[in-house]
Give the backbone structure.
Amino acid sequence: MSPTKEGHSMPTVGTGKYTYTLIQDWAKLPPGETFAMVSAVATDSQDRVYGFQRKDPPIVIFDRNGNFLSSWGNGAFDFAHGISISNDIVYLTDRNNSVCLIYTLDGKPIQMLGRHGVHSDTGCERPGDLVPRAAGPFNYPSEMVADPAGDLYVSDGYRNARVHRFAPDGHLKLSWGEPGKTAPNQFHLPHSLLVHEGRVYVCDRQNHRIQVCTPEGQPITMWTDVQQPMDISIDREGVFYVSEGRADSPSARISVLDKTGAVLARFDCRGSGHGSWVDAHGDIYLGVGNPGGIDKYVRQG
């Protein structure tokens, strides 16, 4: 056990270089305020932490010590899902409205992909089912990320089985993926994605794997030593951090993976593992629900 915070022991998790002190319920809202489920988390260039929660205000912002700074987005989202921040631009998905939205750090809208409440025809009614057929954008998209050139990639998602790639102006360049359980580019709930050094990493959640492909959708490899991969992020050294669901095990977990997908560290976490992020210091943030909040894993190694 490591030092205490407010009288509670703070457990140490992980191994070797990837050892962390866990601070549960790290983010502190103003008096009288409570969290809903924090679906996803990201940080900006100033190390501020953005939680995307399923109530108003949907975006809640904290400093590195967990102190509340500000919030925005009231009334703009039906069902908060994915968040990523790149070059201090915020990329968000409103799952149930089938739209992907781009904002400034202080909540000014920049761009929207998709149309509110207009869903592509995949034949899927129940989110998370294996869809009858893949279709264009969007049907319950899960996450949007940008690559260094500004192209936008969307995992789509809960009622589709595709990855879409857009030009910076929102023009659809290409889509790939079909429903399925085994072959490359078959997806069952693509839930999160990441673009790094010419590779796209897709959390193929209900197939318990991360698919790695080119920006043109050509398969490269698969990482299969994961369970229900929920969210993926990367640190400055090119190390990947994946929060994973419970699947058939007692607990969700966080895995630290090298560039080949090999496990560097792995430890259980609270909640469902739905949303996570690694910051510039190597600290990990985890969104939790029931009750909602943000846990922080402070790197010690």
User: Anything to note?
Assistant: The radius of gyration is 18 Å. The chain has a mean pLDDT of 96.
